[in-house]
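During the reporting period the student researcher (J.K.) took over the structure-prediction task from the postdoctoral fellow and processed the backlog of single-chain submissions. One of the processed entries is reproduced below for the supervisory committee.
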Amino acid sequence: MNPPANTPVFPSRLPNVGTTVFTVMSALATEHHAINLGQGFPDFPCDRKLIASVNDAMLGDRNQYPPMIGISELRHGIAQKIKNLYGHEYDADSEITITAGGTQGILTSILACVGPGDEVIIIEPAYDSYRPSIELAGGKIIAVSLEARRNERGQVASYEIPWDQLANAIHSKTRLIIINTPHNPTGMVWQKADLDRLAQLVKNSPALILSDEVYEHMVYDGAYHHSVASHPELAARSFLISSFGKTYHVTGWKVGYVAAPAALTKEFRKVHQFNVFTVNTPMQYGLANYLSDPSHYLNLPAFYQTKRDLFRIGLSKTQFALLPTPGTYFQCVDYSALNIPQAKLNEAEFCKWLTTTVGVAAIPVSAFYEKPTESGVIRFCFAKQEQTLSTALQRLQNL
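J.K. obtained the following structure tokens:
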């Protein structure tokens, strides 16, 4: 459809951006009454205590603008949590800012430090907001890809950090390196040795780090989440981003935070005050109250590991090849060895077929790359009720 004659036409700031695959697959799932294991959100309710805390704040007339940087109680609670978990002490007043979710924290961090021509390294497959955020800042994207390790049947068995490529990509024009652990979509988790190696690569570089850690409390099998906050050399040059939406099953609330050294936070807040200014007041008070009980996030690994294990046991009865899932609430599988004609489809077409015919929606991992990168791997979300997962598994086991 052509625009009306009186509508001016202007160059798009994001000419290559269309509707995201998450929106497309969710709409397709709704249309075909499929079980949506594509988009990453829970289908179960949050703790009623959290709802009550927010309700109390509303009834207590906590309904006007809060401070631009977020209420003191929440910022101090976050600072204490980070200190307890990772040993780093952020100043709650000058180094922690409440954001409208993790994605806003990512965009604002990038806009604060990246200018036209600055190079930003991302590691693909990458969360889909990284690229447009860099483009809006005028930055140049330098993408390196995780190394896919394959088994004897040629199926993807795991992903590894491409250290040689990463080292070669870092130089004097590198403004920012974006890392994500636990990693969406692969579920890979960075280890302490990985942070040590990254610190060595940037030691003599002016590069900053943006560490997307929104799945920090979803690390399994007794393992430990290694945050940049736990590494003094990296903490000194990093924006650390996390999300209450992921942690407390309230993705629709869109509340997160960014922790960074005072000098970085100063620049971050210059942008933050004009693209968001501040974040929902009663929810901040409710979250501050809820955060005061550490069990609400310390028990999360066991909660999600139960779901992960149920889902993996069910998938083991299919022809899918399961990739490791040490973190996040995503399970990746390789479908290339399925004994059906559709196994020859590319990832996007396979996911559409899976949604419309089998009745289970998934996300193609190829959607997390800029250029088509087909590996026969798709991503399921297991942040669902047990009945939802069981019904999905019954359908997948019939393949």
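The committee noted the following: The CA atoms of residues 355 and 361 lie 5 Å apart.
J.K. will present the remaining backlog at the next meeting.
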